[in-house]
Design brief:
Layout (H helix, E strand, L loop, with lengths): L1 H10 L11 E4 L15 E4 L3 H9 L4 E2 L6 E7 L4 H14 E9 L4 H9 L6 E5 L2 E6 L14 E2 L5 E2 L11 H9 L4 E7 L5 H6 L4 E9 L2 H10 L5 E5 L19 E6 L4 E2 L2 E2 L1 H14 E12 L5 H7 E9 L3 E9 L5
Parallel strand pairs: 1-2, 1-4, 2-3, 4-5, 10-11, 10-13, 11-12, 13-16
Antiparallel strand pairs: 5-7, 6-7, 8-9, 14-15, 16-18, 17-18
Keywords: Methyltransferase, S-adenosyl-L-methionine, Transferase
Protein name: Methyltransferase, putative
GO molecular function, one term: S-adenosylmethionine-dependent methyltransferase activity
């Protein structure tokens, strides 16, 4: 855990944070302990909606981007190398001291090797299958900064670290081709940078499409990629999202369809529970006549969750890598 490495570095490894000035905690999960830090000086920087909401609930100042100067920035490394470099460069732009905290499985060794070619590390410790290091980089990381959004080879707006940034995901392409006669109010849960949403909006019967995405950088790209006026954007945890209530309505809004290519990893670890949470969310927001269309990796056992929540479940396509699934007639719990 991040807290184990940071605590160990502070208590026994020689990390001495500045006595004065604000501190930034960048990218840390919402359950990370901060009792080893002076929380009166702390601002959390988090672009994931679920983690952002978690920090707000804990009563700490929380923002989506750093502003002004910090005495030190404590950076939790993301999995993607380009996102890790960009996050460290952003921290270096705003802070005199940068503390790097990462797991080996998230590439911390490679990042530290690259850092040593540019600057001298002030110190480092190994703990909990990872490393925590600290440095005063100055402007040595300036070339690691990347545009917040940039166009890929296909002309789509993407950002460092987001899923399938180089090209449309093949599973999403297959799912879009399998959709039939969508209409009414629809949601794309885990919309990413918006490629699948554009496919959904090719169906003229769609009245409104809700793009629900937890990662703000991806959703900001979707706003650029999806310009259809029927699109409504929601920065939210898709597993907890509820459709907005129509003005004057007395009952919760329910949707006619949900389309999704849900994530199936937590970090580098396959996590079927995440996909099941997406399926449960879809069942919760669908009307009795509503339909779910989804794609999943072939090996993930989502059929059990679908059968428990829908009366009609069928595989409608796919290949050796992924499967296309359709479900209808939500099973409502008896009162």
């Amino acid at each position: 855990m991040t807290s184990e490495r940071l605590r160990f570095a502070i208590e026994t490894g020689g990390l001495v944070l500045p006595d004065d000035g604000p501190l930034a905690l960048i990218g840390a999960p919402a359950d990370a302990p901060v009792d080893m830090l002076d929380t009166s000086r702390l601002t959390v920087i988090q672009t994931d909606a679920a983690a952002h909401d978690g920090w707000v609930a804990r009563g700490l100042p929380t923002a989506t981007a750093p502003e002004g100067r910090f005495a030190a920035a404590i950076v939790t490394l993301p999995r993607a190398r380009d996102a890790a470099e960009a996050r460290l460069a952003l921290a270096a732009r705003h802070a005199n001291m940068v503390v790097i905290d990462g797991a080996k499985t998230d590439g911390v060794e490679a990042i530290l090797k690259a850092l040593r070619q540019r600057v001298t590390l002030d110190g480092q410790v190994s703990k909990a299958h990872g490393r925590c290091a600290w440095v005063r980089p100055g402007d040595a990381l300036a070339d690691w900064l990347r545009p917040t959004q940039a166009q890929n080879a296909h002309g789509d707006w993407v950002a460092p670290g987001i899923f399938s940034a180089d090209a449309p995901d093949e599973a999403s392409v297959a799912l879009a081709a399998a959709l039939s006669a969508l209409k009414g109010d629809v949601a794309d849960l885990g919309a990413g940078w918006g490629w699948l949403s554009r496919g959904i909006l090719r169906h003229h019967g769609v009245k409104t499409l809700h793009l629900v995405e937890t990662e703000k950088t991806a959703l900001d790209c979707a706003r650029l990629n999806v310009t259809d006026p029927r699109a409504v954007f929601h920065w939210a945890d898709a597993t907890a999202w509820t459709p907005p209530q129509p003005a004057g309505a007395h009952a919760p809004r329910k949707l006619d369809a949900v389309v999704m290519n849900p994530p199936f990893h937590t970090g580098r670890r396959a996590d079927p529970a995440l996909g099941r949470a997406f399926i449960e969310a879809a069942a919760r927001v669908l009307a009795p006549h509503g339909q779910l269309w989804m794609v999943a990796n072939r090996h993930l056992p989502y059929e059990t969750a679908l059968i428990a929540l829908f009366r009609d479940v069928a595989e409608i396509g796919g290949d050796s890598r992924f499967k296309l699934l359709h479900a209808a007639r939500v099973i409502r719990a008896r009162r």
